[in-house]
Write a structure and sequence with these properties.
Rossmann fold; about 475 residues; 2 domains; 6-stranded parallel beta sheet; binds adenosine-5'-diphosphate
Length: about 475
């Protein structure tokens, strides 16, 4: 099958969170199964763009409202990612460093989608599937089936994957003319709560809808930022497929970003070396248990509670624990998390910002990884933690519920029910007790490293969905 993925992120070209990881891995594994999966994404000003060679496969114009933008689609020449990657350059809209958060994001992502379809519409053949990811590509299923200029694509199946239903990309009806012409009788397919809502439109128009874990599909009918009833209505065509991880990128044996590679057999010496280096860099004591957090500092991740959770844990432990945070997001949370370093130097540190290499070093060097998420569609951090022999401490929600089993239930992680200071504090206490039993910790680490969360299985599930 020829599968075209459309996404705003794809690792290693551009990554803000899990979406980038998934779109950077799933196509590679689909190709390994004998299919031809390709990725189309915007051409941000990224290192990838300047360090690689490209050929132009499309040169044209894209009209958004009354402005004509020059559009060019570039293919990376060597297929080095394990799949063909196409970057959509739209002059004036994507030649910037960031991925999201601009005042003209609506125009940017409409231009991305229209330029991509204009290009595909010129092909002599049709792809077997167009697979769109999140709201940035969410207008595609509507446009393919309703816009006059793409009429001959309307039999191409479209699949939407919802990585996070909190973000929907809504904009006002005053921007209706930003879209290519279509029969106005179909406007209801774009509408949700009196706005044009790309995610809602994709849920309505895509042939199939998937969520990134089975539990998230159950939860999303109750918590989906206003889309609950729509998702319940469309439940019949929806399926939860658990994300995998790219075991080539996340491989503790071969990882070049960590100081010492290790396998399940050499895990104790490997983790020790990585922990010592991490503690040296962040002025922590490697003889004490190291609790960590990696992620966006937003309410969904429970980040607003982290400062209180950490103050309590540090006060109660009499200096017997270490905590290290890597993240960025809400400036107030960033400030509060930074302040703790001054109160507890030697036991606590925080790196505020985005740092891919440091994330690998933390998965390798930490004893525990905290994920007190309020919402977690899948969560990849806990799967990376397992692969690197780091014990996850997670709230039982979404994909966390599908991937982590509590030690009390014969599993390997520590689970709690609520995103609350008390619940997480209690879980930290349980982790401390566990840490004192090093034989048990060793046994769990070995077991966690043997768990297979690679994409092999889920990549095939998507193929089955395309063929349904
Ligand atoms: P989400 O997509 O909701 O942010 P996921 O758990 O699905 O959460 O994926 C998060 C990904 O982003 C992981 O690869 C994680 O390591 C990475 N990540 C998050 N914050 C940072 C950061 N500050 N620095 C480096 N990597 C980060």
């Amino acid at each position: 099958m020829e599968i075209i993925h459309l996404s705003a992120e794809c690792y290693p070209v551009a990554k803000v969170g899990g979406l980038g990881d998934v779109v950077g891995a799933l196509p590679k594994y689909q190709n390994k199964l004998g299919h031809v999966a390709k990725v189309v994404m915007p051409a941000y000003n990224s290192k990838f763009l300047y360090e690689n060679e490209f050929e132009t496969v499309y040169d044209g114009w894209v009209k958004v409202a009354s402005t004509n933008y020059q559009a060019r689609i570039l293919r990376e020449k060597t297929n080095k990612l394990g799949f063909d990657i196409f970057l959509v350059h739209v002059a004036g809209l994507f030649d910037r460093g960031g991925v999201y958060g601009y005042g003209d994001d609506t125009e940017r992502f409409i231009a991305f989608q229209v330029a991509t379809l204009d290009w595909i519409a010129q092909w002599e053949h049709r792809p077997d599937v167009i697979h769109v990811h999140d709201h940035h590509a969410g207008l595609i299923p509507f446009m393919v089936s309703n816009c006059d200029q793409y009429r001959h694509l309307n039999q191409v199946p479209t699949v939407l994957t919802i990585h996070n239903a909190q973000y929907q990309g809504q904009f006002g009806w005053d921007k209706l003319l930003y879209l290519p012409p279509f029969d106005l009788i179909n406007t209801s397919k774009l509408d949700w709560n009196s706005a044009i809502n790309p995610l809602a439109s994709a849920i309505k128009c895509a042939w199939r809808v998937t969520t990134v874990s089975p539990s998230y599909l159950e939860e999303i009918s109750h918590v989906a930022n206003g889309l609950e009833s729509l998702l319940s209505q469309e439940r019949g065509k929806s399926i939860g497929v658990l994300n995998g991880i790219d075991t080539e990128v996340w491989n503790p044996q071969k990882d070049k970003m960590i100081v010492k590679g290790y396998t399940a057999r050499t895990i104790e010496s490997g983790k020790k070396a990585n922990k010592e280096e991490l503690c040296r860099v962040f002025n922590l004591d490697s003889t004490k248990p190291l609790y960590t957090f990696i992620g966006r500092l937003v309410g969904e991740k429970g980040a607003d509670l982290l400062p209180d959770i950490f103050y309590n844990a540090l006060a109660q432990s009499n200096g017997d624990i270490n905590i290290l945070v890597l993240g960025s997001g809400d400036p107030q949370v960033e400030d509060r998390l930074s302040e703790i370093t001054h109160r507890y130097p030697g036991n606590y540190n925080a790196y505020i910002g985005y740092n891919e290499a440091l994330s690998h070093q933390i998965y390798a060097g930490a004893d525990f990884l905290l994920m007190p998420s309020r919402v977690e569609p899948c969560g990849l951090n806990q799967m990376y933690a397992l692969r690197y022999g780091t014990i996850p401490i997670v709230r039982r929600i979404g994909g966390l519920k599908d991937t982590v089993i509590d030690i009390g239930d014969g599993g390997f992680g520590i689970c709690h029910d609520q995103t609350s200071v008390w619940d997480v504090g209690h879980a930290i206490g349980r982790a401390y007790e566990l840490y004192l039993d090093q034989n048990k910790v060793k046994e769990i680490r070995k077991y966690m490293m043997s768990i297979d969360h690679s994409w092999d299985n889920s990549a095939q599930q998507y193929i089955d969905i395309y063929q349904m």
